[in-house]
Amino acid sequence: MEFSHFGALAAFICYFLATFAVVFRLFHPKGPHIVSVLTLGCLAIIIHTLNTANYLFNQEVINFSLPNVVSLVSLIITLTVTSLALRFKVNLLIPVTYAFAGLWQLIMVFMPQGNSAPIISGGFPVVSHVTLALIAYCVLVIATLFAFQVAYINMKLKSKNLAAVSHLPPLMQVETQLFILLFIGTACLTLSELTGFIFLENFISKDNAHKTVLSLLSLLCYITILWGHFKQGWRGHRVLVLTIVATSLLTLAYFGSRFVKEFLL
Which of 84-98, 122-136, 167-181, 198-212 has the lowest mean pLDDT? Predict the structure, then answer.
């Protein structure tokens, strides 16, 4: 077994233990023991970072194959949520992000390394487009998780189950954070689309048409959510559903065709 596989297994174990530590005390009056959770989480993130760097830079070019991109995205999301946990109560988000990151590390052990997919060279404009797209996706996925948290807290408050939310942050605080994340993610996605249209010659070619259309539809959904909230007062279930739709469209745009090309064809 390769060294990276040992690292992936170690990261999986740390993520699993951290997830278990949160879930086991999720409804405890004092909540999870956050120091233990974050210690395990940080250890897992360090190993995850080393593994991802090894997969991305083990060749002369940066290997942006689908498994490596998913590993990078999960790393960024997990690192962001862990950083937020230092200041805010994100007990509902930690198990989801840690569990997915850990499971993907485990999958990487058994997944055969397919053909390399090097990042296209093209100077600063192309790098800017890819970077903005990556940041936008990670921020908007985190915003989707916040939308679920808002919906959960709102549901428990309506049912007057105060014990279930005693260890969670106030509803208004989470909702404010949700729309800040949506605004930042939407801004980055808008800039990513603009740089693609301006600098990428094949951005609207036949091969990339589906990606462009889906990402634009996703962008339209996010803009609609922000408009509806700030102009019409939308919140709660409607925002959750539209956010899920928008993030699903963006996921299909970024990963759908690559999954077909790299694993089905």
Answer: 198-212
